[in-house]
Write a structure and sequence with these properties.
about 375 residues; C2orf69_mit; about 15% strand
C-alpha cells in the first residue's frame, strides 16, 4: 500500500446506476487536501487490472498486483492530491485478460460475444468485427452515462453512514455490477438519494466521545455538498481504457456538429479540462487512435488539454504496426491544428515489456505538477 491514505478510501461502490439502466462499479478515493477548485479525475484502466482479491487469485494476473484498482486509486491520489479520484471498473468478458467498457454503449447488444474462441468483441461499447476491432459510432450516450454515474456516485457517498466509509467494504457489498441482475436492483436508486438533504449522513447512534465524533466528521469534509458532475474533470485512459476516450471524441463531434441545437451535455463537456492517453492500445488491426480530421478539429475547438504518453510496448510493437502509425497521425494532425497537445515517449531506448507499459503510471507528469518536477522522458509539444 502507498502510505496510510486519508480517513476514508478507497471506497467501493458496486453497481452504480448510469444511463438508462446501465450499471458500473466505481472505486472512489477522496482528496488528500482541500482544493481551491473542485476537480475529479476519472480513470479507465486496461487489461489485467481488477480488484485486489480477483488479481491475487488469478495465476497470470497476480504478478501485476501493484496495479490493482485499489493501488491505482492511491497512486492517482498521490499524483493529484487535491482531486477526487473516480475509477470506473470495466465489465469483463469471459476472456481473462480482456477489459471491456461495455456499459458505455447501448445495452441491447450481446456484450460477451466470442468469435472463433480467440477474440472478445466489445459490441456494447462499440460495434466490433470478428477480430474485436472497434468500429466507433457517432453516439452511444457515453457522456450521458458518465454524467449519471458521477451524479449517483455523489449521492451515494453523501448519504452513506460514517461507519461505512471504510477502506475495506463488507463482504456482501463487494458484488460487482456484472454479478447483479437488473431484476435484483433498482437502477434508479440514486434518484431518491439525490433528493435527500445534501448534508452529512451520520450513524443513528452517536458516539460517546463527541470530540472524537467531531474529529471523524472533520476528516470527511470532502463529501459535504459533493457534486462530482459539477467538478472540473480530468479524464485518463490507460491501455484498453483509451477506447472510452476515443468514443468520447466521436460524441464531442456528434454534439457540437451533428446536433448543435442539443445543449444537454454542453455543461459537462465544458468541465472537461484535460484528457490523458496513457499508452493506448488494443488487439484490433485499426482504430487504436482517432485519425479523422473532422473529429480532431472538433476536439481542438473545445480547448481541452491533450496529453499523450507512450512506451515501446505499444508504439514499437512490430506485430501491431498500425498503433505507431495511428498515434503519429493523431499527434501530428492535432499539432497542425494548433491544439494544446503534449506528447511524451517514455523508456524510448528500452525493449517493449508489459512492466514498462504499466510503469507509465509512475512517470507521466500531471499538468498540476510544478514545471521543475523531474521528467522521465523527453516531451514534444
Amino acid at each position: 500500500m502507498l502510505g496510510s491514505g486519508p480517513f476514508c478510501g478507497p471506497i467501493r461502490l458496486p453497481a452504480v446506476p448510469g444511463y438508462e439502466g446501465r450499471l458500473n462499479d466505481v472505486l472512489y478515493y477522496p482528496p488528500q487536501k482541500r482544493p481551491e477548485e473542485g476537480t475529479a479525475v476519472i480513470y479507465f484502466g486496461g487489461d489485467v487490472q481488477d480488484y485486489r482479491e480477483n488479481m491475487e487469485s488469478h495465476r497470470d494476473n497476480k504478478p501485476y498486483m501493484k496495479w490493482c484498482l485499489e493501488e491505482m486509486s492511491e497512486r492517482l491520489s498521490k499524483r493529484f492530491p487535491d482531486c477526487h479520484i473516480v475509477i470506473v471498473r470495466p465489465v469483463r468478458s469471459t476472456t481473462p485478460k480482456l477489459a471491456t467498457f461495455m456499459e458505455f454503449v447501448s445495452s441491447d447488444m450481446d456484450h460477451n460475444r466470442m468469435e472463433f474462441k480467440t477474440f472478445s468483441c466489445y459490441d456494447n461499447f462499440v460495434p466490433c468485427n470478428n477480430c474485436g476491432s472497434p468500429e466507433h459510432t457517432p453516439t452511444h450516450h457515453s457522456l450521458q452515462h458518465l454524467e449519471r454515474l458521477l451524479q449517483c456516485t455523489s449521492a451515494r457517498l453523501r448519504n452513506m453512514p460514517v461507519s461505512q466509509l471504510k477502506p475495506h467494504v463488507q463482504k456482501d457489498a463487494t458484488k460487482s455490477s456484472s454479478e447483479i441482475t437488473s431484476g435484483g436492483i433498482n437502477v434508479d436508486s440514486c434518484s431518491s438519494d439525490m433528493r435527500q438533504n445534501d448534508g452529512l449522513a451520520t450513524d443513528s447512534k452517536q458516539p460517546a466521545d463527541l470530540k472524537q465524533f467531531d474529529k471523524e466528521q472533520e476528516k470527511i469534509w470532502w463529501r459535504e455538498g459533493l457534486q462530482l458532475d459539477r467538478a472540473r474533470l480530468i479524464l485518463i485512459g490507460f491501455s484498453k481504457g483509451c477506447v472510452v476516450l476515443n468514443q468520447i471524441i466521436y460524441e464531442f463531434h456528434y454534439l457540437k456538429t451533428l446536433t448543435p441545437d442539443d445543449d444537454t451535455m454542453s455543461k459537462l463537456v465544458s468541465r472537461i479540462r484535460d484528457m490523458y492517453w496513457l499508452d493506448g492500445g488494443h488487439a484490433g488491426g485499426k482504430n487504436t487512435w482517432i485519425t479523422s480530421r473532422s473529429l480532431l478539429e472538433t476536439l481542438t475547438r473545445l480547448g481541452i488539454n491533450i496529453h499523450v504518453h507512450v512506451t515501446p510496448y505499444q508504439v514499437n510493437d512490430d506485430r501491431r504496426p498500425w498503433i505507431r502509425k495511428e498515434e503519429k497521425a493523431f499527434c501530428d494532425l492535432l499539432r497542425r491544428l494548433n491544439a494544446p497537445i503534449e506528447r511524451t515517449f517514455h523508456f524510448e531506448n528500452q525493449l517493449p515489456t508489459l512492466l514498462t507499459h504499466f510503469e507509465v503510471h509512475n512517470v507521466f507528469r500531471p499538468e498540476c505538477e510544478n514545471d521543475d518536477s523531474p521528467s522521465a522522458s523527453a516531451t514534444e509539444t
